């Protein structure tokens, strides 16, 4: 039986990689993104490569849109076996300059959207008796505080608590919930967008920022899309059917707890 994965934030960067990777793993893929053109492009490329995919436009912070997204996936692909919540935003600045509007927006995307998507997908899994999995793409900033990243770190810490609570809520329904705690994803659009802010934080030229972050990692390299995909594949599989409520470090040894 074919399995269906819904990837929220699947239209570019890590999300695009995961969408195509899971298609190669044999999943039918619903690529959901705030920017429909991005989702459509990724979906078209999956279909052109012999996979099966649909594109869905969604603002994951809006309840009605999340409900409509899940209903569309069920209508067109029949089920949802796996949710990967990959939507995320960040802003880097000192707490004294952090605006409430920016803080709330970061929490909305990184936490509230995860909650809404997990809730609506869980309803489908329970109704159809699907032994499913929910995976939140998180960050090492959800385990250790991050200078000039109070909004992002706060949301990611909260998402760990949400992951554990969802795992407890859904254990009786045979739905597993885990979080991937990523290290420095240096080639992601998100990290690239923060380079100017990180240069200010560190007091160095932008050209030196990536190497500075690499130097902090015991394995002396950044986290790659492939690193993430490998662990996601395992936690989505039946080989991980005794693992739930976990916050899995993918940090090259930079965070070990």
TrEMBL record:
SUPFAM superfamilies: NAD(P)-binding Rossmann-fold domains. It is an enzyme of class 1 (oxidoreductase). It comes from the Bacteria. Keywords: Oxidoreductase. Its EC number is 1.1.1.140. GO terms for molecular function: sorbitol-6-phosphate 2-dehydrogenase activity. The keyword Oxidoreductase applies. It holds the Pfam family adh_short. Belongs to the short-chain dehydrogenases/reductases (SDR) family. This is Sorbitol-6-phosphate dehydrogenase. It comes from Pelosinus baikalensis. The lineage of its organism: Bacteria, Bacillati, Bacillota, Negativicutes, Selenomonadales.
């Amino acid at each position: 039986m074919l399995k269906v994965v819904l990837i929220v934030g699947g239209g570019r960067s890590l999300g695009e990689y995961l969408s195509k990777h899971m298609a190669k793993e044999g999943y039918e893929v619903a690529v959901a993104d705030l920017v429909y053109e991005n989702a459509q492009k990724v979906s078209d490329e999956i279909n052109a490569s012999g996979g099966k995919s649909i594109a869905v436009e969604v603002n994951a912070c809006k309840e009605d849109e999340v409900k409509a997204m899940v209903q569309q996936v069920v209508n067109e692909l029949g089920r949802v076996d796996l949710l990967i919540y990959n939507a995320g935003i960040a802003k880097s600045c000192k707490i004294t300059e952090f605006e409430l509007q920016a803080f709330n927006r970061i929490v909305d995307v990184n936490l509230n959207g995860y909650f809404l998507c997990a809730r609506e997908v869980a309803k489908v899994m329970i109704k159809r008796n699907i032994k499913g999995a929910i995976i939140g793409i998180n960050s090492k900033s959800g385990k250790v505080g991050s200078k000039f990243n109070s909004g992002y770190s706060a949301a990611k810490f909260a998402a760990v608590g949400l992951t554990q609570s969802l795992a407890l809520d859904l254990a009786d329904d045979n739905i597993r919930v885990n979080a991937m705690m990523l290290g420095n994803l240096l080639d992601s659009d998100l990290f690239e967008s923060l380079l100017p802010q990180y240069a200010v934080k560190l007091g160095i030229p932008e050209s030196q920022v990536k190497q500075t972050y690499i130097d902090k990692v015991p394995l002396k390299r950044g986290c790659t899309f492939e690193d993430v995909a490998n662990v996601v594949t395992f936690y989505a599989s039946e080989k991980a059917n005794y693992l739930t409520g976990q916050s899995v470090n993918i940090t090259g040894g930079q965070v070990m707890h």
